[in-house]
Amino acid sequence: MTNRVLILGGRGRIGSSVAQDLATHTQAEITITGRSPEIGISNPRWKFLVLDLAEVDKLQQAIASADLVVHCAGPFHYRDANVLKICIEQGVNYVDVSDHRSYTSKALKYHEQAAAAGVTAIVNTGIFPGISNSMVRQGVEQFDTAEKIHLSYLVSGSGGAGVTVMRTTFLGLQHPFDAWIDGKWQTVKPYSQREAVNFLPPYGRTGVYWFDMPETFTLPHAFPSIKTVITKFGSVPDFYNHMTWITAHVFPKWLMHKRGTIEFLAHVSHFLTDVTNNFTGIGVAVRAEVTGQKNGETSIFCSDLLHQNTAMASGCGTGSIAQLLLEGKLNKPGVFPVEEALPTDLFEYIVQSRGIKIYHNWL
Q1: What is the 3-state secondary structure (H, E, C) of 38-84?
Q2: By the 8 A CB rule, do 109 and 87 touch?
Q3: 301 vs 149: CA distance, rounded Å
Q4: For residue 111, which of 106, 140, 259, 335 is within the disulfide window of CB 3.0 to 4.6 Å?
Q5: Sign (positive/negative) of CA torsion 136, 139, 145, 146?
């Protein structure tokens, strides 16, 4: 029997990358959704369904006919957890590419209901958060006691993503956020405290800044010995970082809280990256450093990942989790961030199957 996968928001850059990954690695019947009639569906195996998430009856019907739902309809800052709630009611497994703490918090509140219904729901499964979180888990497991996590993300130009990802970036600048530092929650300003990080070539030493990500609170929960979690993000070319810093720290707060401002900034940025992509590419670099105690000494375990296309890397992260669920290799009823759901042996299997190389070294 062929598995049926419903990809909400499947026509966007991230959603279509997930669909492509699933088409490559599974025989699943794939239905992608969008709010307007079909335009340019690139794979004859894919079906298309016009669907707005506000159409609850139609959404329920679509979910009921699926074996797995993949939620790619961001930005997740604006989303409630209704899709997840319906999946639990219908007994359908769920995966998403969510990347904001407000949504992750809402989703995790359904843990008990999902567990009782036998539904496996895994959130934050893209590239960052997603593959990055599993890199951290792999690092934590190298230690007798892990103490500190430092995650750094770098994206070239648009990363091959669409306007939605640009919206996500600017929405992440609206509010200070809580970070787990030295064993207590401390308030951090977005896009502050620039730090130079050594990424793999061709990027090299590049600036990154504090950025609000769900792993700032999911990782301390997953690994209770951790006393500090740092999540920082940067762009290539570097002048985008300075523009983003100005947006975060100079623009009036009341202006940044207007949806129209976010839309304007997102579209202008996407236009600019369409130009600079020709020079910078659309790749991503992730560096995960875990500090801890091993054999009585303090050490740092570093993991580095490069991918030439950020959107495609996100598709690999989410598509691989979906594949494991469809094949029955991953079954963990409840709602979990990816680092709590995916064991390291399966993580190593899926990145190898997709030709993704992660480089490790000890400092």
Answers
A1: CCCCCCCCEEEEECCCCCHHHHHHHHHCCCEEEECCCCHHHCCCHHH
A2: no
A3: 10
A4: 335
A5: negative
